[in-house]
Amino acid sequence: MVGRGARFQESSDINEDLQLMQRIASGDESAVSELYDRFGGLVFRGARQLLPSDAEAEDAVQEVFLRLWRTADRFDPARAKLVTWVMLLTRRHVIDRIRRAAVRPKTIEMNAINEGFGGAHESKASSVERNVQLQKCLATLPEIQRAVIERAYLQGFTLREVSIQLEMPLGTVKSALSRGLARLRANASQDLPGWAAS
Amino acid sequence: MKISREQYPEATTPMTNPPIYTPPNELAELALLDAYGLLEPAEQMRFEQAFLAVSPDVQAEVRRVQTEIAMDEALLPNCEPSVELKIKVLARIRSAMDMDTSGMLRVDELPFQRDTLGYIGSKSNIMSSVWTWRMAALVLLGVCLTLVVMANTSQRHFDRMFEEAIRLHTDREIESALGTEFQPYMDLMRRSTAKQQYVAINGGQGLVRISIDEATGDIFLLAMDLDNQDGPCSFTIRNAQGDELASAVIRTDRYIDGVSLSVDPTLLAGTQFVLRDADNRVIASSTFV
Prior knowledge:
The structure holds 2 protein chains of 2 kinds. By secondary structure, chain A is mainly alpha-helical.
């Protein structure tokens, strides 16, 4: 159960979110700036997780904020919190971008990590570190879950495509993916506490 | 995310259509995949419908889980965007705002787009949309059929043009090889009422090809390979009663000769063609059929 104080806090947040998006929808530039200050870093990291270079990620951030501005009037706080809305648009955009531009990162092999994997704009060390951590977490997952996450989340294949590639029913792919992602999150926060950004 | 069956009552929000039942475990699965942006549009719509159909408690739980995923940075790289990025983002949006205020509509604001979206969004209009598509398909079919007929007509026209071109080319070839002397033969052969008949000398020593226009009685004799004869040959056309209708002398000092004649077309039936050599001996004959 959620306490009364927490509920009050939540409704206050919801109102703030709604007001911010309403200001953006009405063309208030300072509201856009505020939105960027709140979510710019998160959106960038979300994009950088899947895109091969900082330049690509920065381009994606611009597109995401443009889309947030365009769809500001459609934000519905009853449906989702603003952070959820922002990250949902980010992830959808990044996955679309991977699919459209065919910039799918290759399936990361453990031995390939030592050779470096990442874009030209990112230092090899941080790129390798990022992928080593992700790969470590992925390695803890059962093979099927790992395979579907790599294909659907990291390489941008649609669930239908993954289902064909792995010769598995679509429902099984979805289940494996959701279980795998949940487990990946759990493993990441337990095993690598120092790695997560603040 | 734990959503029990008890938390999953019938729809509490008024809806025009009965809500589609989505099992709780599937709803949880969809919520998670949606938060990661992995649902395809149809699945997104299904999830949205399922979300609206559940109780406020379950909706709150879905919201909580999705917010948790959105804010979870455990799997995100530990990096920061460049300072210039904010400037770029704001400049990009300002430029888009300027375009909007200068009267340039966004794609999703174009009237046809808005109408289309409204069309798709409204359940009651889905049938109209279906009929629109059907009408469009019919129109397309009509266009296809017209194109096929046009292509067929064009092909026939082209064939005729091609035949005519070939004929003209052949005429020119013959004319260049034999001169204009045989032009009456070429003209005669183009007539639909023209018939061909041969009077051949035994042993293949020569022949006369007779082209007859049954409608007008115009005749052209094309004598070939008679150059082995000692002198000019004579060609006679007689009717069934033996009366001479026409005659001509055929030169044999060259391998091909042509002569034009004309007879009364009503007398053509049963006509006899007789070819005689220089000594007036009959060397070939034939009856018009």
